[in-house]
Design a protein that fits this description.
By secondary structure, the protein is of the alpha/beta class. The protein has a seven-stranded parallel beta sheet with strand order 10-11-9-12-13-8-14, with helices on both faces. Strands 15-27-26-18-25-24 form a six-stranded parallel beta sheet, with helices on both faces. A five-stranded antiparallel beta sheet has the order 2-1-4-3-5. A hairpin with a 2-residue loop joins strand 31 and strand 32. The chain is globular and about 85 Å long. The termini are far apart. The structure holds adenosine-5'-diphosphate (ADP) and zinc ion (2 copies). One zinc ion binds next to loops.
């Protein structure tokens, strides 16, 4: 091959930070060997940045002579596999977002920052053969003698020995360092050891019931397919995943399992770990950067055969991936709600298509999108009718709040039922989707209510800290002693949140443990584990909390579920609110009657005759979904039409509105595009910024994309006193 002296030999296309829809070109020096999927340090304006190589090619005539060179190639091996590179490129194009963040999504924070791609575990300390057999008393120094004795005893117990472990046993670095010089001890950095998936069981699989067996049989072992596995909580979906996984592992392929944000508890992990001998890694937001780094490298190297993770784990490079499972596929935590607003379930499906492998979507309450696809025959659809343990469905009834005396939001009738169940030695679960003590602070004389000065929202009273708190911007203030409008001191909390419910329940049932689950009482996985452990202890107890309680946890002793308030979802302007409310109602109801005991569910409402509740009271999610789908079809909403949401915010309302008006005009000039708005957002002011939204709809996805693309190119997301963003397939219209 001949090269002209004018052009550099090779060019690397590298995704770099900035508002670039694609990678930029850099010149490859003779001694550099970048490969697609590796990271490079490159110059960008006056900075040095970490970029991802997306391609390497011979220079063409279009390439400028003045291209900058790569400063340093950070990885000799590609860190991202071809399928992940392709997936990231698709993410950037589909969500109409910059390229670099899409590639960066695939990496843990350490690697995004440009750190070396290696395990940062502490080094292991290993005795040499001489160290194993030397009698410590032959050493002179007392400290070294003790250190060797300790190391030998650890060696016998075959515990992996690290400096931290020794320190915990009173042996400092200074004491064992000398042993290395004497060649009695070696330091070894941890290494990645790829392993072949086996599918060998640690624990015997259960015998599937007929529904489960049919579902497993219907799922192809290879080739692209999407299976929607629908079944109430406890119907045995997880057992089907486990057996499908085993099939895949036995074929020497790896498995990726996605779970919702809060779903990745030690309980869940245990269940997967107990079944298989193959090694498993978890990837979730509760881990430290270091832990994530190591788990990610283990997944990439093929050391783990099972990768269990939350949202962003969908972009983990995994060699020989053979199956993807998305548990609770309807869960809103799969959608990232800021910057790059991607949906992990949709990425999972795209990735399965790229790799030509099956993907299973499981849920008790499938999203309308998935249900529609299944009913149209695009997805396989298996339903688990029976509860795996032979349990009957919970009975559901309403309590008409218009005819009930109630205190702290709990009606006399519900209270009576709670007492009955506790007396029977059972547990009760009370659901209330509002944290804090009371959603407002209210003047009994003139009706004044405490508003956030920066948002179009009420402040929530938190009694424990005696603070008024804004759940939207974090603003805090002391509760007013005197009404700012009429001067009255007759001020009181209005409405009930979980904190208030807990307080009232403690007063009513002083001898019963009250276990609260909400963001204030459960901040992380460890808190959650602690509260769950309390809930699993013997004896009567009341669990009270928000939707955190609705998600997949097993409460064997709960026989009564009380839904204190769910009315808000009935009248929301967000068309998704009702879908979510129905899903939540079914999910929460599913918490009762898991053991041998029959469950009951009672719903407090001011609208007992609302047609929306009818199928839900019969625990008939499919009929409920059919109703909603008919509604969506009439209005051209997803899954029948395609939707994007443009949101703007500014301290100056006119500017925020003006921008969207301009965009609306441009969009309307395109064929097949409808717009709604701009309108003030449902939360019209947040943190001092006025917020507007513009909904864009089309019956054709490609039209929607091609209409939106020029807007993204023409309007910077950050302008003076104004920001805006685009949300493709929005799930939240707030
Ligand atoms: P889901 O994932 O749908 O909530 P699980 O798979 O967790 O359901 O099953 C619920 C309970 O029933 C678990 O305790 C599980 O061990 C048990 N189970 C599942 N399948 C079977 C089966 N075929 N035979 C007996 N018990 C089963
Ligand atoms: Zn007043
Ligand atoms: Zn606020």
């Amino acid at each position: 091959m001949t090269t002209t002296s004018k052009h550099p030999l090779r060019i690397a296309d590298i995704a770099v930070p900035g508002p670039f829809a694609g990678p930029l070109s850099y010149r490859v020096e003779a001694d550099q060997a970048p490969v697609p999927g590796s990271r490079c340090l490159v110059p960008l304006r006056s900075r040095q940045v970490v970029g991802v190589v997306t391609g390497v090619r011979p220079a063409g005539t279009d390439d400028s002579d003045t291209l900058k060179s790569i400063i340093q190639v950070l990885d000799e091996q590609p860190l991202l596999s071809p399928d992940v590179l392709q997936l990231a490129r698709w993410v950037s194009r589909y969500y109409l977002y910059d390229a670099h963040p899409a590639y960066m999504l695939a990496f843990p924070a350490t690697l995004r920052a440009g750190e070396a791609a290696e395990l940062n575990d502490e080094p292991r300390l290993e005795l040499t053969v001489a160290g194993e057999h030397l009698d410590p008393y032959q050493l002179k120094g007392q400290r070294q003698r003790e250190a060797l004795a300790e190391l030998q005893s650890l060696h016998k117990s075959s515990l992996a020995c690290t400096p931290a472990l020794l320190r915990a046993r009173g042996v400092e670095r200074a004491h064992w360092k000398g042993l290395i010089d004497k060649r009695l001890l070696k330091q070894r950095t941890a290494e990645l050891k790829p392993a072949t998936p086996e599918g060998a069981l640690r624990q015997e699989a259960l015998t599937l019931n007929s529904d489960q067996a049919a579902a497993l049989k219907a799922l192809p072992t290879e080739g692209f397919s999407v299976q929607l596995l629908e079944g109430v909580t406890g119907s045995g979906k997880t057992e089907v995943y486990l057996q499908a996984m085993q099939r895949t592992l036995a074929r020497r392929k790896r498995v990726l399992v996605l779970v919702p944000e809060i779903g990745l508890t030690p309980q869940t992990l245990d269940r997967f770990q107990q079944r298989f001998q193959d090694s498993l890694v978890a990837l979730h937001s509760g881990m430290t950067d270091k832990q994530r780094n190591n788990a990610w490298l283990r997944a990439r190297a093929g050391e783990a055969s099972i990768i269990l993770g939350t949202r962003s784990a969908v972009l983990t490079p995994i060699p020989d991936l053979g199956l993807i499972v998305v548990d609770e596929e309807h869960d809103a935590s799969y959608k990232q709600q800021d910057t790059l607003r991607y949906h992990a379930r949709d990425l999972a499906i795209y990735r399965a298509r790229l790799l030509n492998i099956p993907v299973v979507l499981g849920s008790a309450t499938p999203s309308l999108e998935s249900l529609h696809n299944a009913r149209q025959g695009r997805y396989l659809h298996q339903i688990l009718q029976q509860r795996a343990s032979g349990q009957h469905r919970a009975r559901l009834e309403t309590i008409d709040m218009r005819q009930q005396k109630h205190e702290h939001g709990v009606s006399e009738r519900l209270l009576h039922r709670v007492r009955e169940h506790l007396n029977g030695g059972n547990q009760v679960l009370l659901f209330l989707n509002r944290r804090g003590y009371a959603p407002s602070w209210f003047c009994r004389q003139c009706g004044w209510m405490s508003d956030c000065p920066f948002c179009d929202a009420r402040l929530t009273y938190h009694r424990g800290r005696h603070q008024m708190l804004c759940h939207h911007c974090g603003h805090q203030e002391r509760p007013q002693q005197q009404c700012p409008d009429c001067g009255s001191t007759d001020l009181t909390p209005l409405g009930a949140g979980t904190e208030r419910a807990e307080e009232a329940l403690t007063a009513w049932f002083p001898d019963t443990p009250i276990i609260r689950f909400d963001r204030d009482s459960v901040a992380n996985a460890r808190d959650l584990e602690q509260q769950l452990a309390r809930a699993h202890a013997d004896g009567p107890a009341i669990l009270v909390g928000t939707q955190m309680l609705a998600k997949g946890h097993h409460f064997e002793r709960v026989t009564l579920v009380g839904i204190i308030d769910m009315d808000a979802g009935l009248f929301s302007a967000d068309f998704r609110a009702r879908e979510r409310m129905g899903q939540l109602l079914v999910q929460v109801s599913g918490r009762s009657g898991r053991g041998e005991r029959a469950g009951e569910v009672v719903l407090q409402t001011y609208h007992p005759d609302h047609p929306f509740f009818t199928p839900l009271l019969m625990q008939d999610y499919p009929t409920f979904a059919t109703q909603l789908l008919a509604e969506r079809q009439r209005s051209g909403l997803p899954p029948y039409g395609f939707l994007a949401c443009l949101r703007s915010d500014s301290a100056y309302p006119q500017r925020a509105e003006q921008l969207l008006k301009e965009m609306a005009t441009r969009l309307l000039a395109e064929a097949g595009i409808r717009v709604f708005g701009p309108l003030p957002a449902l939360l019209s002011r947040r943190a001092g910024k006025h917020r507007f939204t513009l909904l864009v709809q089309s019956d054709h996805r490609s039209r929607l994309h091609s209409a939106l693309q020029p807007l993204v190119a023409d309007y910077p997301r950050q302008q003076r006193h104004l920001t805006w963003h685009l949300d493709i397939d929005p799930i939240d219209l707030m």
